[in-house]
């Protein structure tokens, strides 16, 4: 056996400026929190806005996480994602309205049970719908971005019209489950109960996704597939099956995001998913294509910035997210933590 | 040649509008190293990619160990026992060396005996086991690329230019590892531009030009026949 040369790793002496530059995406949210605190000046207002921003960010992350994986792993631009958000909201809220007795009972257990059933129903329906969407609409246009945009926008319109057919053309107003209404008062700040629940669900989902991606073989396959799908196949894995699985999971997450967003707004419309897609795309792009961690940071930044700006300078809130995206892309044209290079 | 491990018969491959392989006929014998030689752009990499299934053969037949695999999926070809090391190494930079190897062991956890054999062949992989593969040097990446193909029992290895751009010491490590694979009975189809390495490792050679095999035979014959070498490869004996 030929001996290889001896390799003794030594750690490079990286200048502090380079270390900070590398870690900067992870520091952006803490920096934003501090800047927000200084600019707002009032601790209780800052806390209320921060929880509101984090809740909004978590819900956008739930919707964006699936899309960034579909982008990264499958190289598919799917505007149909917006339809899954709307369908998820309508299915989930139908469950909440159908179980009105549980929802209106002054029992946290029953109320959370309703939300859980709504989420499960929404994820099951949107997962199935995602599977059908991939088979019928996306599969014929793999590798053709322009066709993907055209055909998935078409799919989005068709599904929105189907929502009108099934649930009627009007928006649906409803009340959140009883125990999720109102707010806690903490340190002089009003913290809405539902927003806290959204933060918890978002965090649990992020940790679960991290564990799946870092600790399981399927997570390894997905991470490797985002980087070099051809090589994953050459090792012996059927990436097509993984593609379909990721599309179904991404659609189900969009459905989950739709239910959460519906409960947050207390009104649902067929076009709500389409409207959310602007924020979702901003998050996916500034996070870096294919990066769940990037989407998480990006979503929190979008949520926090929108709330802070709306308080400080309401007129600027309309352009805060586009401004954020412009600034991030001028700094890092591939997004903060890209897994795949934009083509 | 009797009972080759791999046989290509009249294989034609198109890439987009380009007709790259014009009827490749090639036999790869068992338990030997076959060098696929030729100038740049004659179709060597396309031949390997067609065998593993990254490109689909438009016409012709590919038989692996007697079974027709022409229409088989890439993943099924790999699971049938074909290991592939692409020219760009195909390393998953975002994954650690350990994760690259874990992923390569498709049938279950990486066999410790096999892992130790890989460490013996490529000691840097032990050193950098938990480092991101993207931080490895070019030579170390190439070691990982070959080690990954060795993570499972393979009957045939397709290896595309494993010594390209590497320092002589690393080339020697690669050559040693490939020799060990051959000693263990594996069959290897190797694309190599470095004729000295090809001569040292190869038992057989097949020379390509314009998408066809224009000569095949024992490596020894090619390496010692000055006129043949000049005609097929454009090399003088001194250069070889």
Provide structural commentary.
- The complex is a heterodimer of chains A (343) and B (240).
- Chain A is mainly α and 343 residues long.
- Chain A has helices at 16-40, 43-74, 81-98, 100-104, 108-138, 145-167, 193-215, 217-235, 239-265, 272-287, 292-312, 317-331, and strands at 172-173, 183-186, 189-192, 267-268.
- In chain A, strand 2 (183-186) and strand 3 (189-192) form a beta hairpin.
- In chain A, helix 1 (16-40) runs parallel beside helix 11 (292-312).
- Chain A is globular, with a radius of gyration of 21 Å.
- Mean pLDDT of chain A is 90; it is low at 1-7.
- Chain B has 240 residues and is an alpha/beta fold.
- Chain B has one domain: 3-Layer(aba) Sandwich (Rossmann fold).
- In chain B, strand 4 (57-64) and strand 5 form a beta hairpin.
- Chain B starts with 5 loop residues before the first strand and ends in a 7-residue tail after the last helix.
- Chain A binds chain B through residues 1-9, 217, 220-221, 223-224, 227-228, 230-239, 339, and chain B through 52-54, 73-75, 78-79, 84, 86, 90, 92-95, 99, 102-104, 106, 120-124, 127-128, 131, 140, 143, 148, 152, 169-170, 172-173, 175-177, 179-180.
How many strand elements of chain A?
4
Q: What is the fold-level CATH name, i.e. the topology of chain B?
A: Rossmann fold
Into which percent range does the helicity of residues of chain A fall? over 70%
N-to-C CA distance of chain A: 44 Å
Instruction: Give a quick account of the main beta sheet of chain A: strands, pairing sense, barrel closure.
Output: 2 strands, antiparallel
Radius of gyration of chain B: 17 Å
Tell me the quaternary state: heterodimer
Number of domains of chain A: 1
- Shape verdict of chain B: globular
Amount of helix of chain B: 25-40%
Chain pair with largest interface: A-B, 27 and 41 residues
Average pLDDT number of chain A: 90
């Amino acid at each position: 056996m030929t001996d290889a040369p001896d390799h003794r790793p030594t750690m490079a002496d990286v200048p502090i400026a380079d270390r900070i530059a590398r870690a900067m995406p992870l520091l952006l949210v803490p920096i934003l929190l501090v800047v927000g605190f200084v600019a707002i000046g009032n601790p209780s207002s800052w806390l209320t806005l921060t929880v509101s921003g984090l809740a909004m960010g978590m819900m956008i992350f739930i919707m964006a996480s699936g899309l960034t994986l579909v982008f990264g792993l499958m190289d598919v631009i799917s505007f149909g994602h917006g339809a899954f958000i709307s369908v998820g909201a309508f299915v989930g809220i139908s469950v909440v309205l159908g179980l009105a007795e549980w929802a209106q009972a002054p029992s946290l257990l029953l109320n959370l049970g309703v939300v859980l059933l709504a989420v499960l129903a929404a994820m099951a329906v949107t997962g199935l719908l995602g599977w059908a969407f991939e088979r019928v609409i996306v599969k014929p246009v793999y590798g053709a971005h322009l066709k993907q945009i055209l055909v998935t926008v078409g799919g989005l319109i068709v599904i929105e019209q189907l929502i009108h057919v099934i649930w009627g053309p009007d928006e649906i107003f409803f009340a959140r489950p009883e125990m999720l209404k109102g707010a806690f008062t903490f340190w002089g700040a009003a913290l809405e109960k539902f927003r806290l629940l959204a933060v918890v669900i978002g965090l649990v989902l992020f940790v679960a996704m991290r564990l799946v991606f870092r600790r399981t073989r399927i997570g390894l396959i997905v991470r490797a597939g985002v980087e070099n799908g051809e090589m994953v196949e050459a090792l012996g894995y059927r990436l097509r099956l993984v593609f379909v699985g990721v599309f179904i999971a991404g659609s189900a997450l969009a459905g989950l995001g739709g239910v959460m967003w519906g409960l947050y707004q207390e009104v649902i419309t067929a076009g709500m998913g389409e409207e959310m897609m602007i924020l979702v795309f901003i998050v996916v792009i500034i996070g870096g294509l294919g990066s769940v961690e990037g989407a998480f940071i990006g979503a929190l930044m979008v949520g926090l910035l929108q709330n802070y700006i709306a308080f400080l300078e309401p007129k600027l809130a309309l352009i805060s997210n586009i401004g954020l995206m412009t600034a991030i892309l001028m700094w890092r044209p591939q997004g903060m933590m890209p897994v795949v290079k934009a083509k | 040649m009797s009972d080759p491990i791999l046989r290509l018969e009249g294989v034609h491959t198109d890439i987009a509008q380009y007709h790259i392989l014009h009827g490749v006929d090639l036999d790869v014998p068992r338990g030997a190293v076959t060098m696929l030689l030729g100038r740049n752009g004659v179709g060597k990499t396309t031949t390997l990619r067609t065998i593993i299934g990254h490109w689909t053969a438009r016409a012709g037949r590919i038989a692996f160990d007697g079974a027709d695999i022409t229409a088989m999926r890439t993943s099924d070809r790999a699971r049938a026992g074909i290991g592939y090391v692409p020219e760009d190494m195909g390393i998953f930079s975002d994954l650690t060396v350990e994760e690259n190897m874990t992923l390569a062991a498709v049938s279950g956890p990486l066999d410790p005996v096999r892992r130790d054999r890989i460490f013996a062949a490529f000691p840097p992989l032990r050193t950098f086991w938990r480092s991101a593969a993207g931080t490895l040097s070019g030579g170390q990446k190439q070691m990982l690329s070959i080690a990954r193909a060795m993570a499972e029992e393979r009957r045939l290895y397709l290896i595309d230019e494993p010594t390209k751009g590497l320092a002589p010491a690393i080339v020697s490590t690669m050559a040693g590892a490939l020799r060990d694979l051959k000693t263990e009975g594996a069959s290897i189809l190797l694309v190599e531009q470095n004729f000295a390495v090809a001569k040292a490792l190869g038992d057989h050679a097949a020379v390509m030009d314009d998408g066809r095999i224009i000569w095949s035979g024992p490596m020894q014959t090619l390496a010692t026949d000055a006129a043949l070498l000049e005609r097929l490869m454009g090399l003088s004996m001194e250069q070889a």
